[in-house]
C-alpha cells in the first residue's frame, strides 16, 4: 500500500514538473517573447490603404504601419540590452485576431475597430483613428444617399463590423437593399467595377484608400454620410498590460509631440482631406501625460 502511495505521489510530481514549461510558455508576456526570440513581429494588412497596405515595392506602408514602426522603436528602447529585429508579417481580415492570440504576430497594425466582443479575445491600444462606415459607388450610378440604395446590391467584406451595421441601418430606414458578402476588398472593387454590385460599403477611410489607388478616381462617388462610429486601435494580446503600456507610451508620445499630424498628412492629407473634428478630438483626448 505504501509502495503504491509513493508511486502515485511520484507520478503526480512528474506530471506537475513536466507541465511547468507548458504553463510558463502560456504565461509568457509579449515583451518576454520578444526578448527571447529577438524579434518584434508586426502584423499588417495588404489591402487597407491608406492605413495598412503593400506599396509598389512590396513593402508594408500606411498610417497604421508608421505608428507601429514608432512602437517598434519604443520596444527596442525598453529592451535596450537585447538586439531586437523588427519583422513584418501580412495577415488577412479573417486571421488578424487569431494571429495575435496564437502569438504568430505581436501586434496587428491595420484598420481594426475596437469592439467589446473583440475584447473578449484580445486587447487594444488607445485609439489610433476614428472613422465611420459609408458607401462607395460608380459616379454613373447616381447614388447620392443611403435611400438611393433601395433595390440595389451592396457589397460588404466578410468578418467586418460593416455587415451587421449596414443591415441594421437599412432595416431601420426601411431601405430594401440586398447585402452581398464578398471575400475581400479587392473582390468588392472588382465586382463594383464589373457591375455585379451597385455599391460597396466599408469604413469611410478604407473607401478613400480604394479611390486613392484607383486608376481613375473620378469614376467613383463616396457618400458624405456615415452610418456607424468606428474607433480603430492596434490589436495586442489580452491581459498583457506591460506590452500594452509600452505601445501606448509610444502612441501618446506621437500625439504629444504633434507627429500625428505629419503622419496623417503623409498618408491621408496629401489628397486634400483634413482631419474631421472627431479625429482631432480623439488625438487631444488621448494625449496622456507621463
TrEMBL record:
Q: Which segment of the chain is annotated as a signal peptide?
A: 1-24
On whether Kinase is a keyword of this UniProt record, the answer is no
Q: What is this protein called?
A: Solute-binding protein family 3/N-terminal domain-containing protein
Please name the GO terms of the biological process aspect recorded for this protein, alphabetically.
amino acid transport
Per its UniProt record, what InterPro entries does this chain match?
A: Bact_solute-bind_prot3, Solute-binding_3/MltF_N
Q: Show the CDD domains listed in the entry.
A: PBP2_GltI_DEBP (cd13688)
Q: Describe the location of the Solute-binding protein family 3/N-terminal domain by residue ranges.
A: 39-271
Under Pfam families, the record lists: SBP_bac_3 (PF00497)
PANTHER family annotated for this entry?
A: ABC TRANSPORTER GLUTAMINE-BINDING PROTEIN GLNH, AMINO ACID ABC TRANSPORTER PERMEASE
An example of a Gene Ontology cellular component annotation for this protein is:
extracellular region
Gene3D superfamilies to which the protein is assigned, alphabetical:
Periplasmic binding protein-like II (3.40.190.10)
Asked whether the keyword Methyltransferase is assigned, the reply is: no
Q: What family does the entry list? A: Belongs to the bacterial solute-binding protein 3 family.
Instruction: Alphabetically list the UniProt keywords.
Output: Signal, Transport
Amino acid at each position: 500500500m505504501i509502495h503504491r502511495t509513493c508511486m502515485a505521489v511520484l507520478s503526480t510530481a512528474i506530471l506537475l514538473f513536466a507541465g511547468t514549461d507548458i504553463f510558463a510558455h502560456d504565461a509568457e508576456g509579449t515583451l518576454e517573447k520578444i526578448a527571447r526570440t529577438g524579434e518584434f513581429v508586426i502584423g499588417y494588412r495588404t489591402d487597407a490603404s491608406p492605413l495598412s497596405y503593400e506599396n509598389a515595392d512590396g513593402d508594408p506602408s500606411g498610417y497604421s504601419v508608421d505608428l507601429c514602426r514608432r512602437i517598434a522603436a519604443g520596444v527596442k528602447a525598453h529592451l535596450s540590452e537585447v538586439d531586437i529585429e523588427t519583422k513584418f508579417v501580412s495577415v488577412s481580415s479573417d486571421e488578424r485576431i487569431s494571429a495575435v492570440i496564437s502569438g504568430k504576430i505581436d501586434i496587428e497594425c491595420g484598420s481594426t475597430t475596437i469592439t467589446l466582443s473583440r475584447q473578449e479575445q484580445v486587447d487594444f491600444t488607445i485609439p489610433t483613428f476614428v472613422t465611420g462606415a459609408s458607401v462607395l459607388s460608380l459616379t454613373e450610378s447616381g447614388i447620392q444617399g443611403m435611400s438611393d440604395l433601395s433595390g440595389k446590391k451592396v457589397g460588404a467584406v466578410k468578418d467586418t463590423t460593416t455587415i451587421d451595421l449596414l443591415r441594421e441601418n437599412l432595416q431601420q430606414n426601411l431601405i430594401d437593399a440586398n447585402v452581398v458578402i464578398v471575400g475581400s476588398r479587392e473582390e468588392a472593387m472588382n465586382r463594383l467595377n464589373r457591375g455585379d454590385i451597385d455599391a460597396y460599403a466599408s469604413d469611410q477611410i478604407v473607401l478613400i484608400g480604394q479611390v486613392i489607388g484607383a486608376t481613375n478616381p473620378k469614376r467613383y462617388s463616396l457618400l458624405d454620410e456615415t452610418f456607424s462610429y468606428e474607433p480603430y486601435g492596434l490589436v495586442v494580446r489580452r491581459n498583457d498590460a506591460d506590452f500594452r503600456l509600452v505601445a501606448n507610451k509610444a502612441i501618446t508620445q506621437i500625439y504629444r509631440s504633434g507627429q500625428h499630424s505629419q503622419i496623417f498628412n503623409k498618408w491621408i492629407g496629401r489628397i486634400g482631406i483634413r482631419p474631421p473634428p472627431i479625429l482631432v478630438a480623439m488625438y487631444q483626448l488621448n494625449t496622456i501625460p507621463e
